[in-house]
Amino acid sequence: MVTTREVTYEVDGLTMVAHLAQPDGEGPWPAVLVGHDGIGLENYQRERADLLAERGYVALAMDYHGGQWFPGNPEAMLARVLPLLASPERMHAIGQAALDVLLSVPGADANRLAGLGYGAGGSIILHLARTGVRFQAVAAVHPGLEIARPEDWASVTGTVLLCTGSEDPICTPDHVLALGHALRDTEADWRVNIYGGAQHAFWSAPTDSAGVPSGKTTHTVPTVPGVEYHPAHAARAWRAVLDLFDETIS
């Protein structure tokens, strides 16, 4: 059995509304911090936390929009996300606040800690890893990447997994190569999965303007350019995340 509940906390001038999922019992459990995509904390990331709890992890799907989300409104989403990603201090504060909430859960094992992030949430998770959070595993699915330098990754302690599409205009081949070179030079344990033909946010099933799944295979409401659903690669990326966590923190 799995127990879920909303958790609120204050950071970045907002009341964040996160989703906590944990197994029944007393633990200790490996702990996973989940960062949502730029659109906001939606059912996909909540379900990731629930599925992880079913496998014996305590998982917190963080919020970094103060309970807001932006289906069909890419302009409002970018107005929130781009300034955030441009501020390492804000990213750190938001990520650390969520991590503190996760590790305050009775039974959460700080020595078996992982991060999982999608899009901008992946950027926040990677930022935490770069700045000294001792994740045993970090999985970033189509994050926005800067051109990496080895010195920026010297503090990474755990295994890094990057899942991205070959056609992603935000996580480009140049970004992926630079990250690989940086991680190689720091002698980190890392791997990259590139999914042929996949674009940005390839896990994101199309919805209507209210965020309700449309059942369609292509997006019919506005999104940022370069976003397209690829169900086969979405399943493959999730399997890769589970394999990583099974290997490193189970």
TrEMBL record:
SUPFAM superfamilies: alpha/beta-Hydrolases. GO terms for molecular function: hydrolase activity. Transmembrane segments: none annotated. InterPro entries: AB_hydrolase_fold, Dienelactn_hydro, FrsA_esterase. Residues 18-247 form the Dienelactone hydrolase domain. Keywords: Hydrolase. This is Dienelactone hydrolase family protein. Gene3D superfamilies: alpha/beta hydrolase. Belongs to the AB hydrolase superfamily.
